[in-house]
Known about the structure:
By secondary structure, the chain is of the alpha+beta class. The protein is about 30% helix and about 15% strand. Keywords: Signal.
Amino acid sequence: MYRKLPLLLLFVVLATVARASTILIPMDETQTDHLKAYGITFWVLNNDIEAWWLLNYRGGSFAFQHSRAFERECLTRGVKYEVIPDTRFNGILEEIADPERNMDAMKLEKAPKIAVYTPDYNFREGTEVQPWDDAVTLVLTYAEIPYETIYDTEVLNDELAEYDWLHLHHEDFTGQFGRFYRSFHTAPWYRRQVAYQEELAAANGYEKVSQLKLGVVKKVREYVGGGGFMFAMCSATDSYDIALAADGVDINAQYYDGDGIDPQAQEKLDFSKTFAFENFQLERNPLEYEFSSIDHNPRPVTPEQDYFTLFDFSAKWDPVPTMLTQNHVRTVKGFMGQTTAFRNQHIKSSVLVLGENKPASEARYIHGQFGEGFFTFYGGHDPADYRHLVNDPETDLSLHPNSPGYRLILNNILFPAAKKKKRKT
């Protein structure tokens, strides 16, 4: 039998329903700090509260249940938010579900555990910094997203299994010390780098730094193949694949390992082992600040014309690339690095181009799957500094809180938190 609720209890229930609300963090041009908005969402997930990533809705907005604590945190971090009734939020979900709308609602379930592959030594005398910064660690710190650092020994000891997401710091995995020899071989920081890497190789049972780095690269490949998420920028992109292709082949000149290059090195490369690139030519001049023909150098664009366009994917059919390209703009200002852009002719057909400079015929942002896991390669060094040089001061992200280029990094960080959907294509 149906029984009516007591009048007082009915008032309590109605009041509770009326107060039920959602925090919406808009990610369109109205957002005051796009980068810290990711940190807020990560913080909510770390508090065991699920969140929504509203793909292509107002620039890829976030939403989660309202609480006074979450509201205070948004105010503290300077992130714009809206408190909306649950009825309105349900209406937004209905709008997103419309098959005529290129939108999707992705549930974020758990904050990923993040590892940054970076050395623990300091190059520059009298300071606590290296002679270059790293965009990922800068934005993680600015957004207040926690991470841990690991390096060669930890990777070789199979500690990657403890993490959901791995970033490869600005690194040379070929063992050529960034090919800085011609310009910096007399610099104290360079000599320390070489000594540190050689000591690290010996401590892990390797005769050469190139052999140490190859061991690391193979461990990372195992990690990705087993379901890990790997993100790399700048020289960590092409040097990673070059090391895989050159497995068992000496591609380093005497400046870097004490003996010469294998004369048949180019012919012995095995492109079946690489993640993203194939059919590239090694740079044979050991003093050239370049690894191979993967990097589009020289580039047929001026700084004023240097922009790349993000592809517009179908949110409901291709949620993964849609997540990775969420932004409040579709055209992003380019930026330089040791590895700036990828020649299209060297990108494998299995790899998805997420952003490209079409007039220059170059890709800037690519993504692919290896085994059960995923990798993303992002060309360039610092999205907020067009030509960041060795010994330049690190970027102050409080001056760039709405950087579209930095948003792409943070898309990758939240990607592992998404509830997986089977791809429909």
